[in-house]
Amino acid sequence: MKRTNFICTKCKKSFPIEQVYPRCDICNEPLEVEKVTKGKINEGNILKQTMLERYADFFPFDKADKDISLSEGVTPLVGSPKLASELNIKNILFKNESQNPTWSFKDRGTVVGVQHAISLGYKCIGTVSTGNMAVSVAAYGAKAGLTTFILVRADLPPEKINPIAIYHPILIKVDGDYGKLYFHSLEIGRQNDIYFINSDVPFRVEGCKTIAFEICEQMNFEVPDYVVVPTSSGGNIRGILKGFEEFKLSGLISKVPKMICAQARGCSPIYNAYIKNEATISRVETPHTIAQAIANPYPPSGNEVLRKIKDNGGIIVAVTDEEILQAQKRLAKEGIFGQPASAVPLAAVKKLKKENILNENDTVVCIVTGSGLKSTAALEKHDLKVLNCKLEDLNRLIGNKL
Ligand SMILES: *Cc1c(COP(=O)(O)O)cnc(C)c1O
Ligand SMILES: [Zn+2]
Q1: Quick one: which ligand is closest to 29's CA?
Q2: Ligand 1 binding pocket, CB closer than 6 Å
């Protein structure tokens, strides 16, 4: 490992980079890797490079292990002039993270977490998740040949269990308070030498920086005015912001975009604290939203997101399930099928434009965090049409549609 430290995001105390426990022992807030201030991009053939090789300066590893990569990242940034004119903003672009090895942005953080675990000599990794993170850690654990513990809630249905089980991790349904499992697993990891790559652990956050790096490269280093991120634990939005900040410190871009933290109204602990002007979040007692991937009732990085959004001049917004489903449908009309959580940014942009918080000169990037195929239950909420006809009537039917 290169020489660097973890810093507490709140009290700024420093901790050795070799430790795995991801939180400050004084204020219990999340740690982060010290910012890189002098990085450059390893220009090279992007078809052959891994993400960790291209941006190696921005990670503390001596060498990236190519064999653990599944070619994560390097996802498309797709513009939509049609939607921009409909919304009356300058540009809207979608960073399509569904084109990752396990169909969500989680793979970026997982590969970096696995790299850290391997550099420290760990043979066992794990995670606590009900969805995309479980699938991602199971896949990368399999690829790296590590013993992989996946802890899920007891009531997870088979359609969610099976896509995790196929990678053959040690998969455990845990009966008990799922909210406590995040912190409990960190303790179990500490006692048993298992590296838990949970939602907002520092190296997962490091992986998410690459979303920002790629946006900069894809936009020729002219960064957007806003980046909209559907937020649950807060790990991803922290990583994306940190990525822009490190590129700015390194002289690669001239400004840092404003971040928009977008939550679902049915589970919006960060938004609730923001509108009440409180410095810390409170647990949401009965989360209920179609956007299950962002339904963490007590996000471990919630307080840090509040602090960071304030510094950054960003915005926190919440949208209803109805607005989310409308946005999911509208996004599909652009050819992009995201899961409900991934449609939250578009719903947020629509709302903020209506409220004149965004204006017609703004360029906005929405992060489409994961694939619509991950959440087929949501399809039942849409009025999807299929026509039927007999073979002999087909020509007439098509004629009627022209
Ligand atoms: C994990 C996840 C999120 C939330 O990311 P956080 O880092 O927990 O804030 C959003 N969308 C999808 C599809 C996810 O899988
Ligand atoms: Zn601290």
Answers
A1: 2
A2: 104, 106, 132, 199, 230-236, 293-294, 339, 341-342, 369-370
